[in-house]
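User: We ran a pulldown and think these components assemble together. Before we commit to crystallization trials, I'd like a predicted model of the whole complex to look at. Sequences follow.
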Amino acid sequence: MRFWQRLFAKRSPELHDYNIDDQNICTDIRKNIKAISTIFKNCSDLNIREIKTDDRGSSNVAVISIDGLTDKPTLYDGVLKSTMIETDVYGAQLFEELKDRILPNSKVNELKNFSEVLHHILSGDAVIFVNGINKALSCDTKGWETRAVEEPDSEATVRGPREGFIETLRVNTSLIRRKIKSPKLKMESLFIGDYSHTEINIAYIDGIVDPDILKEVKSRLSGIDTDCILESGYIEEFIEDAPFSPFPTIFHSEKPDKIAANLLEGSVAIITDGTPFVLTVPATFWNFMNASDDYYERYSVANIIRILRLLGFILSLLLPGLYIAITTYHQEFLPTAMLISIAGSRVNVPFPPLVEALLMEFTFEALREAGIRLPKQIGQAISIVGALVLGQAAVSASLVSPAMVIVVAITGISSFVTPSYNLAITNRILRFLLMVLGGVLGLLGVVLGFLCILIHMESLRSFGIPYLYPVTPLVVKDLKDTFLRAPWWYMHTRPSYTTSNKKRMADDLKPKTPRG
Amino acid sequence: MKRLMCFVLIFSLLFTITGCWDARDIEDIALSSAMAIDKTPDGKIKVTLQIINPANISPTGGGVGGGGIGQGSKYWNVSGTGNTISQAISKISNSMPKTFYLAQNNIIIIGESLAKSGFGKLLDSTVREPTIRLTNYVLISKGYAYDILAIPPNIEEVLSSEILESITTLAFANTVPSQIKDIAACFIGPSSCFATTKIEGVAKSPQPEQGNQSGKNDPESDKQINLQGLAIVKKGKLIDYLTQNESYGYALIKNKVPRLDITVTYPGIKNSQIGIHIIRAISNTSAEIKDGKLIYNVKVNAEGDITEIACDLNVLNPQNIDKINKAVEKKLSDYIHITFNKAQNLDADFLEFLNIFRKSYPKEYKIYKNRWDELFPTIQLNVKVEYNTRRHGVNSRSIQE
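Assistant: Here's a predicted model for the assembly, 917 residues in total across the polymer chains.
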């Protein structure tokens, strides 16, 4: 552990690296401009526009911005045009005039020192220096190329909103704000990363969130001291409860409606600038097992799909392990006809079932990974070649028995049923463990391994909430949204573990059959 | 760190210790599907196993990857002799390239000569050996059991599955097979009598000529299996067989009638034949001590359809139906009486009446159980059959008119 700490010892780029004697802004604009150009030496994307407001001597106003981070029309029409005025006021007076009257911008800030100036310049604002005053102005001119709001590939739904988060924080918060139009939805901002200065927003609904959980989230986030946050995955690893567990204890999603739903159940969302993936805590196992369609489809349909999904999860976890254990140790479990056909299909296969299964599962996982990495057009071709040709060839070359191909195929299909990708990965890792256990210890091993997984899940906590809540510890009232989902008009309360404001809806919302 | 090390150590132990005992690859086991036990003339036990060859049954094994071995037979009968069953089986393994696997064995056939000289002791190994299922059907063959296994299958691929299928799909109450667990229970009880299905090879009906296959001169290849009637075993020895009608009575008393087809005569019309298909017969037997006499009451509730009317009779008339019902009740009651009389004559309580007695009179049972052989022939039987016709078919009168 020491080694890692030393490796990531604290490094922060301070202003004194740049030989600036005074962090404060000077009254002399020439000095300020020089300081800025020293700090941004060799930064070709910095624009300094000096402006004269009279026909005397040198320029007395300078507008500084970074090319590419600013929206050009806003910068030209909103800042440059309005500072290019002819006036006979100077210094503090001009400064006040600009700030209070002239600049057509909704977000004008007064800046007192260079670290604020740097921060605003680097986040895409235009900073205005005026000669004769030791202050600067910043105008919001942020604007850069962004991806359009589109349907996320990783979380496709049949019914429900199609929009997904993008890489820009403000757009993402606006997507959430559009779902929850209440001043109770709070978004606290903080910056993490010495170099990246990544903006993080902690979103929660005041009055619903549990203050203790919120406090814990803030304290864990403020503990992060690193140089850069490029994705919310960094944050997830820094603040999760069980860093060595294969199970994810922090939920993430690309869909605003999912995040809004979690906020309304008392979760805290962590929105990171630069990534469409928003984290929510606390997360239970059921968060990962439920898709948003479940809440939008009618509950009877949704429940059947939920059962199917849970079955698929268990099947993809256990099926290869069980197949290996039964064909190697417990042939008496099989009906005679099935035993004959499995034995017949394995006659010329040179490997024991364990090796055969590992071989096939490895191939399958490799195909899947290749399918993700390859360009989309080739990806399809690869999966068809892989699945059909390779499987068929392996069977006819007697390297693999047809029964094993079926087992691997069923496992593969049911592993895609899990809506959350990170839980599906967990499932895959554990499946290999159970396969080895099944091959070495038989059914005893599979049962042992399954029990170990269950015990491990029992021991997990996510921000103080047991991972399998409300099944263990059993809270009957909260079971309404786990294995099955109660109809909407019956889900009167929020989950009792996080919320202080528990009541969710009126009591008698069940539609009544009209008489007559 | 310490915990991680512990985990790694324990995990690595998995590969050195054994879990479920004795791994065997599914393709390396000799799958026995039927076992025949006989007595050789010199008093030894001869065990014949029917070993399935999966490669030649499974379509993929023989077709795609099979190549060279696709031509062999689908199963293989191997025999060995010894003083005990296990010794005989171990002899077989001398000529067997695979490990024996008895857990999928479903049928045990016992040869007539062995059955007559007593086979109770031999059954011990079938109960003791953990891999043999207690749901194995025990059949008794007329003649040698290994001759039965030599009969070629007609519809199924393997003879044993043909036997098993005919047992499990037994549509009519011709016979009632017993499993090892039933028989073991009988042996434990004081009466130690049971009945089980008789199997024999009978001549095949004439078959369509099939060119080049006519050259066979193996007598067994002209036969087919036949499960009919029951073999009565008392104290481990085969004592007699039951005829077809007696088997009906047995099935009725034991409440094991899946279906039953009988023919009755309509009272009043000479040579009239009415076919009745009994679809349900629920029986209930109870014991009763009355005036120092042991009386058994058998109550049967039956329902059935009329399948055939070979006389002039209008079934739309309820009185006619009543008369038919009465005739059927009489017939069923006759079957029960025939079987019971046979049991009394043999003094073999294969109907398990003692068991019923024990349930009704647990105290008296302790006194009577040792004298059951004397008591059994003195039992009185009351039979009460209630039969109702449910359907008479689509035409009300016979088509002859």
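Chain B touches chain A through 36 residues (CB under 8 Å). That may be worth checking against your pulldown data before setting up trials.

User: Thanks, that helps.
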